[in-house]
Design goal:
47% helix, alpha+beta, five-stranded mixed beta sheet, four-stranded antiparallel beta sheet, 620 residues, elongated, single chain, 12 helices
């Protein structure tokens, strides 16, 4: 091997060592940089025998497509569960643990205890005042919880709007990265830096929604939601969040745009197509998926449960339940006066069909014809029938022919319905025999002679009758329920059901206490559809306990899922750090090897240089 070949080999080795040193230096300096993938230099041996030498090849970037796909799938699941867990943890704080100070069940228990005390001392001012205080505290607790639920719903929309801005920014940046990666003239170091940036952007987008990521051979990516909505394919789509204003309990998601009361999340593709991602269910995970579910389902379910409790609380005090007048017959049956029923009030008929099966029908006064016919059974499985008392007759009248025709056609295996004026007659026939009949109407007068009383009122002092008009009086009632100001001003009304009631008369208090224990309620709607559906039912105390248990279980499940998914993501991240991360000790050891190799090549070059100098001097 000649001197020129030797010095050429040495210089080639020096250059390869220098390039490797640059790579190691870059690794060490970025050891703590999030998303950095370690790099290695491929050293290529050239030539054979005495004339072999090395040169610097490509700089490879650590990347495992299978591991990256696992990571991309786990990130949105973790972001989804963490976001839900964060909001529901706040819900748990607001509700309080069962039996804790200020919790819903504790406030109801205090109200019931104060009523028990009033039953033994109805003439005691302090005892009556305590009932008013506890009733006010119960209403305020429901108001507070409703406000907290709606505040969280409004926060979901705020976060959705800011997340959409972040998504659009990341999609634009990823488009720019794609454009540079598609240029094969870009040097390898720049390309590796861009690939790191690409993966950071994909990871950031994965936190917001579940993605399908397609890696192209040139390093560019295409993105779409897992439902198929394109996000980036050469050009990025644009996400638009159209807010609908401040959310209230009555502003709900509806697939019908004319009835929808919440913000819309729209994707506009480069070709001008607009897709409603919420309506199409295109986002199922990630922080956006969690925020949508919280806003439209989880928190609204909580609001409906609070409304059910508020409605039941009001009805415990204001409901008058009157049994029908038994008629010996023939045919046997019951007479019922319907004149006192208001919109939302009802009556029930229990009967035995000709097949021997006992059934119960609940008939609700419905003044809004848009709500008819009613077809869904209630929480107890009873058939529900809606009727307009006036039917097609003049306002304020009872159209008995209309009512009886509706009932006779709806309850084909039941008794016969007929009547005159405002009296409904329920009689046995060949199809069914009535067992009992009871009407339930709402007391609106504090001293009308009835033991029930309107202690709790709706907005503008309206009594709660559970009217179904519009969106229904029940929706949002927990945020509107208030104590009757007349009772606050004169607490003797808790006892005096007429102008001549004795100060020590406890009939009204005992009546309400019995309603607390024996009156049964059911929720208008089910919650937790994903887990099979759940309806509240039972006494007022039962419903409060069910809400505490249901919400507590849901919250703990969400927190557990958040912890599990976070641990899974940590495990995948640790694996990625092992594959992609920089080991300082390993890099320093490699650095020392390269320093030695560099010094050896430099020594060879130096010796060859000395020999060449000596050789040149011999010719002078």
């Amino acid at each position: 091997m000649g001197l020129t070949v030797a010095i050429g080999n040495a210089l080639s080795g020096l250059k390869a060592s220098q390039t490797a040193l640059e790579v190691i230096s870059r690794n060490i300096s970025n050891a703590g940089t999030p998303g950095y993938h370690k790099q290695t230099l491929n050293v290529v041996e050239v030539g054979r025998g005495d004339n072999s030498y090395v040169r610097a090849g490509n700089v490879d970037r650590a990347f495992d497509s299978i591991l990256q796909n696992y990571y991309t799938k786990q990130v949105p699941e973790t972001a989804y569960s963490v976001t839900r867990g964060t909001f529901l943890d706040r819900m748990q704080t607001a509700l309080g643990k069962p039996g804790s100070a200020g919790s819903l069940d504790t406030m109801l228990g205090k109200l019931q205890t104060s009523l028990d005390a009033l039953g033994t001392s109805p003439d005691n001012y302090a005892t009556r005042a305590d009932v008013v205080t506890k009733a006010t505290d119960m209403a305020n607790t429901l108001n507070r919880l409703s406000q907290e639920v709606q505040a969280m719903r409004r926060e979901t929309e705020t976060r959705m709007a800011s997340t959409v801005d972040q998504v659009n920014s990341m999609l634009t940046s990823l488009r720019d990265v794609n454009l540079v990666l598609a240029d094969y003239g870009v040097d390898q170091n720049t390309r590796n830096s861009l690939l790191d940036q690409r993966d950071r952007l994909v990871s950031g987008l994965s936190e917001t929604m579940d993605l399908r990521v397609d890696y192209n051979p040139d390093g560019t990516v295409r993105l779409a939601t897992r439902s198929g909505a394109a996000l980036l394919d050469v050009k990025p789509s644009l996400l638009v969040f159209e807010q609908a204003g401040s959310l209230t309990p009555t502003t709900e998601f509806n697939i019908d745009d004319s009835k929808n009361g919440v913000g819309k999340l729209i994707i506009e593709t480069p070709n001008g197509t607009r897709i409603d991602l919420v309506k199409d269910g295109a986002i199922r995970s990630g922080s956006l998926g969690a925020l949508i579910e919280l806003r439209d389902t989880t928190l609204q379910d909580a609001q409906r449960q609070l409304d059910d409790i508020a409605a039941s609380l009001s009805q415990v005090f204001s409901s008058v339940q009157e049994p029908g007048t038994a008629v010996a017959g023939p045919p046997s049956g019951f007479d019922m006066d319907l004149s006192k029923l208001q919109d939302g009030d009802d009556f029930t008929v229990k009967y035995r069909g000709n097949d021997g099966v006992e059934r119960t029908a609940k008939v609700v006064r419905v003044d809004d014809p848009a709500k008819l016919p009613l077809t869904s059974p209630d929480s107890f499985g009873n058939q529900v029938v809606g009727v307009r008392l006036a039917g097609n007759g003049p306002a304020g009248s009872v159209d008995m022919s209309y009512i009886t025709s509706v009932l006779n056609s709806s309850l084909t295996v039941g008794p016969t319905f007929s009547g005159t004026g405002s009296t409904l007659e329920v009689r046995a026939n060949g199809n069914g025999t009535p067992i009992n009949a009871t009407s339930r109407w709402t007391a609106t007068d504090l001293q009308g002679g009835q033991l029930a009383m309107p202690l709790f009122l709706d907005a503008e002092g309206k009594p709660f009758t559970n009217s179904l008009a519009g969106q229904g009086q029940r929706l949002g009632f927990a945020g509107r329920i208030t104590i009757n100001p007349a009772v606050v001003a004169d607490n003797t009304l808790l006892v005096n059901y007429n102008a001549t009631t004795a100060s020590g008369d406890n009939k009204r208090v005992e009546y309400i206490a019995e309603q607390f224990n024996n009156m049964r309620f059911g929720s208008n709607s089910q919650v937790g559809a994903k887990s099979g559906g759940f309806r509240l039912s039972g006494s007022l105390s039962d419903m409060v306990s069910q809400v505490m248990e249901y919400q507590g279980s849901s919250i703990q499940t969400a927190l557990s899922a958040s912890e599990t998914n976070s641990q899974t993501l940590d495990a995948i991240t640790s694996r990625m750090e092992e594959s992609y991360g920089v080991d300082i000790n390993e890099e320093v050891a490699r650095l020392m090897e390269l320093q030695n190799a560099y010094a050896a090549n430099a020594r060879v070059a130096s010796v060859v240089q000395e020999l060449l100098d000596t050789l040149m001097q011999s010719f002078t």
